[in-house]
Amino acid sequence: MMPETATTTRIAPQPMGVTTLDVVMGLTGSERAVALYASDMPSGRRRHTSEQVRAWIVQGVDRLGAEEIRRRAEFQYGHRLLDMSGLVTPQIQQRHEQRFPKTGRLRVAEQQSSNSICGDGMSEEARLRNTAAEVDGECPCRGTRGIPVFYDENCGSVQMMCPVHAQTTIRQMARA
Q: Which residue has the higher pLDDT, 96 or 176?
């Protein structure tokens, strides 16, 4: 069992005919990574069968419950978006490290999650939820969707869009 995390087994009733693959396909990439982190998956980098990875994902969901998996996944993805832009505050980093104290294990879980998505795919419902992100703490944008970058006398304050709270706008601009 994953150290430093209190878990409760929560086996949700599954409708007849729902397979492990169906459960896995109903999860986003971040949700799969969180489930793998919470499972008995070994922390070392090794190749595992798709069936074994699916079993660990389901085990993680059973341990934490679907709601907690989603909540942690949204925080994890929000941290990732801020980290890619160099915007993680000490408060956000501290909470991320409390949630995921073993960075190597998280990397392995993320890699296995990516492999799972490539091999197993994702349901339409999960795909639509795949970009859900939240910040655990005060976001650098402070809810304004813009982060001051610098001040220029000629053009005034220059801002960048918040990678977490302005995702939709950023994606629309990238498609244009």
A: 96
Two tokens, residue 66: 């679907």
* Domain layout of the chain by residue ranges: 20-129, 146-175
User: 150: which 2 tokens?
Assistant: 């610098």
Q: Specify the 3-state DSSP secondary structure of 130.
A: coil
SS3 for 156?
strand
Long-range CB pairs of 85-91, under 8 A, 24+ apart, other chains included = 85/160, 85/163, 87/140, 87/147, 87/163, 89/137, 89/138, 89/140, 91/137, 91/138
What are the angstrom distances between the C-alpha of 118 and each of 13, 32, 48, 158, 171? 27, 12, 14, 39, 22
| Interval 64-87: pLDDT, tens | 999 999 999 999 999 999 999 999
- For residue 98, the tally of other CB atoms under 10 A from its CB is 11
Q: Region of 156 please: left (phi>0), alpha (psi -120 to 50) or beta.
A: left
Count, residues in the chain:
176
What's at 153, amino acid-wise? Answer: E
H/E stretch holding 161: strand 156-161
* DSSP type of residue 65: -
